[in-house]
From TrEMBL:
GO terms for cellular component: plasma membrane. GO terms for molecular function: adenylate cyclase activity; ATP binding; metal ion binding. This is Adenylate cyclase. Residues 257-384 form the Guanylate cyclase domain. CDD domains: CHD (cd07302). It comes from the Bacteria. The chain crosses the membrane at residues 36-61, 67-84, 91-110, 116-132, 139-158, 188-211. GO terms for biological process: cAMP biosynthetic process; intracellular signal transduction. Homodimer. Can also exist as monomer. Keywords: ATP-binding, cAMP biosynthesis, Lyase, Magnesium, Membrane, Metal-binding, Nucleotide-binding, Transmembrane, Transmembrane helix.
Length: 441
């Protein structure tokens, strides 16, 4: 039984939400909230009309057939508003306002001042901006003026009550004063006030809920954009860019260490892999490298095809960046060996790095990114391109900085493009004989 009731409630809620969301555009958040409010007010007005249908019938008021018909037809007309929203949001909003004005005035003229029907016109002030939005202030002000003026005219010209209650309608006895017994006319007025407050409270509540939902969505989008910005740019650079969006972000560093790594044989391997396999392959490798960069406190600069670029000592200058890059390079070789076993095919990485001065900054109006320039970067790139798969090639400057804390293998003199003959070395590991840091830069 409970399950059956729960299903009915869920089905009713699904139908209700479908009606309330009728006509909401896919690309308009603000207009979507107004459409939702129009549907809420329309359903609320229809519910009030149906309630008064039942009340008039139960009370047995004279001429109740007339009011039953008016309220019943009005409820059907209000229910047509959400479906009108499916064709035109503007037409639905104006239809709702026209129906509310016409039906309230008609009921007030037929039932008299003491029924309180014309008090619904007072709701124009708070309700109109919610239904029409804030971009039509003149229209909202004009309609509010018309509604309040009509209310005042009805208040001062209508007779007290056009229809009396039937003699058999019981009165509610007031224990404090017999002169304040509540009869049919008082009941209509009280119910009208409750209905007015109900529709105002419901509209305001829904408006605030929609506003809170919109704010929460904005917060989520802001958090996503912040995360995206932090992934695209280093945190200090992202902060500077947000604080001064039109400024040029450029910094000069006296000493940085730049590493390049290339996945050897990737081009031939790519020809044999499906697109999703290719992307997953690179994602797995570079994902591991990203973790290493974070572990060693280094800044990932970018990936270019199957090449990976990382730097130490920037964007915030720090001591020991050459050692950090060396440690990451050694870990990258270990990761490549582990991934070779995992993939069942050789993952060979050629690594080279160099230390020296550089300039870094943010470039690009669309898809801006943080990059670094200078001869140091060119030499680091040459260390990688002229290197050997599975080895880490370095310059004499890097060897001097690393000192006795690491072990090296002399490669000999190599003709480096743009630099001529250079004596180069392979970094082979950390020294076990000298635990000192030695040569930290």
């Amino acid at each position: 039984m409970k399950t059956h009731i729960r299903r009915l409630v869920m089905r009713f809620n699904a139908v209700l939400q479908a009606v309330l969301r009728r006509g909401i555009p896919q690309d308009g958040v603000a207009s979507g909230r107004r459409v939702y409010l129009v549907n809420v007010v329309a359903l609320g007005a229809a519910s009030i009309c149906l309630f008064f249908c039942g009340f008039n019938f139960a009370a047995g008021a004279v001429h109740h057939d007339r009011f039953l018909a008016i309220n019943f037809v009005a409820s059907l007309l209000f229910l047509s508003v959400p479906f009108t929203n499916g064709f035109s949001n503007a037409a639905a909003a104006y239809l709702l306002l026209a129906l509310m004005f016409a039906i309230v005035v008609l009921l007030a003229l037929l039932s008299g001042r003491d029924s309180g029907a014309h008090f619904f016109l007072i709701s124009a002030g708070p309700v109109l901006p919610l239904l029409l939005g804030t971009r039509r202030p003149i229209l909202v002000a004009a309609l509010t003026f018309v509604a309040i003026s009509t209310f005042l005219v009805l208040e001062f010209t209508l007779p007290t009550l056009v229809f009396p209650g039937r003699p058999w309608l019981p009165q509610i006895r007031n224990p404090f004063s017999e002169s304040l017994d509540i009869g049919f006319d008082d009941s209509v007025f009280i119910l009208s006030m409750f209905a007015l407050e109900a529709i105002l409270a419901c509209t305001t509540f829904v408006a605030f809920r929609l506003a809170e939902s919109a704010e929460a969505s904005l917060q989520r989008e802001y958090a996503r954009s912040e995360l995206l910005l932090q992934n695209l740019l280093p945190n200090p650079i992202a902060t500077r860019l947000k604080e001064r969006p039109d400024s040029v972000i450029a910094d000069k560093f006296d000493s940085v260490t730049v590493l390049f790594a290339d996945v050897v044989g990737f081009t031939s391997s790519a020809a044999r892999k499906r697109p999703e396999e290719l992307v997953a392959f690179l994602e797995r490798i570079f994902g591991e490298f990203d973790l290493l960069a974070e572990k060693h406190g280094l800044e990932k600069i970018k990936t270019i095809g199957d090449a990976y670029m990382v730097a130490g000592g920037m964007p915030i200058p720090a001591e020991g960046h050459t050692n950090s890059v060396a440690n990451m390079a050694l870990d990258m070789i270990k990761v490549a060996g582990r991934l070779t076993v995992e993939f069942g095919e050789e993952v060979a990485v050629r690594i080279g790095f160099h230390s020296g001065p550089a300039v870094a900054g943010v470039i690009g109006r669309r898809k801006p990114f943080y990059d670094v320039w200078g001869d140091t970067i060119n030499v680091a790139a040459r260390m990688e391109s002229s290197g050997v798969p599975g080895r880490i090639q370095i310059t004499p400057e890097v060897k001097r900085v690393l000192g006795a804390s690491y072990t090296f293998e002399e490669r000999g003199t190599v003709n480096v493009k743009g630099k001529g003959q250079m004596p180069l070395f392979f970094l082979t590991g950390r020294s076990t004989n000298d635990p000192g840091v030695g040569g930290i830069r």
